[in-house]
From TrEMBL:
It comes from Adineta ricciae. InterPro entries: ARFGAP/RecO, ArfGAP_dom_sf. Gene3D superfamilies: Arf GTPase activating protein. This is B box-type domain-containing protein. It comes from the Eukaryota. SUPFAM superfamilies: ArfGap/RecO-like zinc finger.
Length: 175
């Protein structure tokens, strides 16, 4: 805006704020024409509002740090629970394995008892049948017992119905 355009807009008018002095500048904060004294008051007001907003934002940053610390504690608790569960699962699996192996050993022992009770002429055929039946029991081709697991995972979900997390997956940090 040129000096003449401003003079046309402000001639015969008073400051939009104090209504006493003639306006000299257009306030950047509210676009009103004000005197220099009121313009300084506007600058001070905006500075105070900005300072309050910065204080508010810093408080929110501190709260986010506190939330992160609490969440970390909960993650450690979840991990400890997973470890306890994994130890219990290991012990349960060892007991199950012992039972499974005992059943297989009983089958082999029974075959041994059967062999001892056979007449001599039936032993060669029984041994061929026994070898075919028990050929699955080898170290190289161990299909008898399959061991597998599903790894536990700690899930984090952000509360709030409309909020979407910017961390939707492990590989891609931002949507």
């Amino acid at each position: 805006m040129t000096y003449d355009e401003r003079e046309t807009l402000t001639s015969g008018r008073n400051c939009a704020e104090c209504k006493k002095k003639p306006p000299q500048v257009q306030c950047l904060h509210c676009s009103q024409f004000v005197c220099l004294e009121c313009a300084q008051k506007h600058v001070n007001l905006v500075a105070l509002e900005s300072e309050d907003a910065m204080h508010f934002l810093n408080e929110k940053l501190d709260i986010l740090d506190q939330i992160a610390a609490i969440a970390r504690q909960k993650i450690v608790q979840e991990r400890d629970m997973i470890v306890r569960y994994a130890d219990e699962e290991r012990d349960r699996s060892f007991m199950q394995l012992a039972r499974m192996i005992d059943v297989e050993k009983q089958k082999v022992r029974y075959k041994s008892q059967e062999l001892n009770g056979l007449p001599l002429n039936a032993i060669p055929a029984y041994i061929r049948e026994l070898k075919a039946e028990l050929q699955y029991l080898t170290i190289e081709n161990n299909d008898l017992i399959n061991v597998s697991s599903t790894a536990p995972r700690i899930l984090l979900q952000q509360r709030g119905s409309q909020r979407k997390s910017i961390y939707d997956d492990d590989d891609n940090m931002f949507n």
